[in-house]
Amino acid sequence: MKVGKVWLVGAGPGDAGLFTLKGLEVLKNAEVVVYDSLVGQGVLTKIPDTARLIYVGKRADKHTMPQEKINEILLAEAEKGCRVVRLKGGDPFLFGRGGEELELLAEHGIPYEVVPGVTSPLAVPAYNGIPVTHRDFCSSLHIITGHRRAGQKYDIDFEALVRTRGTLVFLMGVAALPDICQGLLDGGMDPKMPAAVLQKGTTAGQKRIVSDVEHLSGEVKRQGVETPAIIVVGKVCALADTFAWYEKLPLEGWKVLVTRPKKRSSRTAELLREKGAEVLELPSIKTVPLEDQSRLFEAFDRMDSYQWAVFTSPTGVEIFFEEMKKQKKDIRSLWGVKIAAIGQGTKNALESKGILVDLVPEIYDGDSLAAALGQSLQGGEHILIPRASKGNENLVRILEEHGAAVDDIPTYETVYEYSPLIDLKKELESGGIDCAVFTSASTVRGFVESIKGAECSGLTAACIGKQTKAAADSFGMETYVSEKATIDDLIALVEKIKAQKERE
Q: Which of 103, 126, 407, 410 is 20 to 30 A away from residue 178, measured at CA?
């Protein structure tokens, strides 16, 4: 009988960029993922589509499932022979009850591993310009749970904490902030000791309130704060404004939705994160190769009859060469055939296969590609276009008007998809998305399909190309279009939109 294994994986404080490489590798191979509400959305989107999902809740006092039941689930799934990932916010062993979850596994001889996570007591202050240790101010760090059972007093020796003269970080204690501050004052802390409450650190909802122990509760009441948040007490809090860096990034405070297919979204997300955005990668479409590629196989057998091969997407390039390989053919089959690409991304995909491109239009869309190629035709040319089953109809029409014979061969289809892990409709209704990035008309339509019943009019949409913009316009979105149809220009557009909105 096959015995499974459990990995306790720390998901970090929220920013997907802080999820560890080992955590990501383990997650990619998971067959079952047991997760809770403290895991950041960016990390949730890394869960493979093939994994079976088990949600166990857990936020403050609102537990969807008792801890004992969670322990039993881990045991039961491992006994079925599954690779189980227990995905936990922060670090599994820092107030994460990871030790409790291992007890039952150890008792039954189930193999397990622990993958530590970047923890909020270190990461959140760092994102707010607060070094938790600094030799000019303190030489120790103390992490305390601020959570307590209803109706009970704190079992904390506040006097001992004050005597350490170190930095104090309280987790899960914002609801009892007045009691914590009063406990520290009663324990002998200087009322003017710098202190801070840090809200939703490492995410677009990050907010910092800095005061002193005597006045922090009042400031939080005046300014308002949302959970999750942590409390930091110590002289190092006075450095926040001096060392602040996150809010200086151009897209700080913005949550950007990326709708590109999963295989194509990584660079877009990476560039947005570099600019400070919290990125939610939720592909609204995916591409699926057609099962019947007989027409393409026939084209391979008569490649010497074509004067041009036209590629309209990186996906089309990948499938073309994958199918060519299956037919025991290689790039020598393209000898004498000129190559046209719709844009830079498709050109890059072709060059990665060792193919130099003869023609790329100045504007990266189907109409411009047809116009540019049409100008170079003499009439009577035979042109191959391997592409999506639903492509730009104008491309074939314009080429035929120039006297070309066109083989428009579908090699893949685009289908809509949505994430069962993220309630995108709720995100929109709550104003949680500052900008959505669309790279094709199909990503727009897929997005709208995934939020059936939700209102998307007024949603800020950064679009590549006029056709993408037209699709977003048709649904009432507030649309902007990049100067060129490149990812770099699209990122620059998002920066421009944010700067414009901040001026308004």
A: 126
> Of 58, 347, 469, 498, which is the active-site residue?
58
Which residues lie closer than 8 Å to 350 by C-beta, 6 or more apart? 311, 317, 339, 341, 356, 357
Task: Respond yes or no: is residue 190 known to be catalytic.
Answer: no
SS3 503: helix
Q: Which helix H or strand E contains 400, and what residues bound it?
A: helix 393-401
Q: Which of 492, 44, 448 is nearest to 280 (CA)?
A: 44
CB atoms near residue 37 (< 10 Å): 15
What does the longest C-alpha to C-alpha distance in the chain come to? 92
- Cis before residue 410, ω within 30 degrees of 0? no
Distance between CA atoms of residues 447 and 417, nearest Å: 8
Instruction: Name the helix (H) or strand (E) containing 441.
Output: helix 441-450
Q: What is the mean pLDDT of the chain?
A: 91
Whether the predicted pLDDT of 61 surpasses 80: no
End-to-end alpha-carbon separation of the chain, Å? 65
CA 78 to chain centre: 29
Position 467 confidence tier, pLDDT thresholds 50, 70, 90? confident
Dihedral of the CA atoms 469, 475, 479, 485 (nearest 10)? -20
Phi (first) and psi of residue 461, to 5 degrees = -125, 120
| Nearest of 408, 349, 292, 278 to residue 18 by alpha carbon | 278
Per residue in 339-374, pLDDT tens? 999 988 899 999 999 999 999 998 888 888 999 999
The closest alpha carbon to 173, from 144, 200, 194, belongs to 144
Which of the following is catalytic: 15, 36, 91, 408?
A: 36
Q: What is the pLDDT of residues 437-450, one digit of tens each?
A: 999 888 999 999 88
State the residue for tokens 């009322």: 191
Give yes or no: 36 in active site: yes
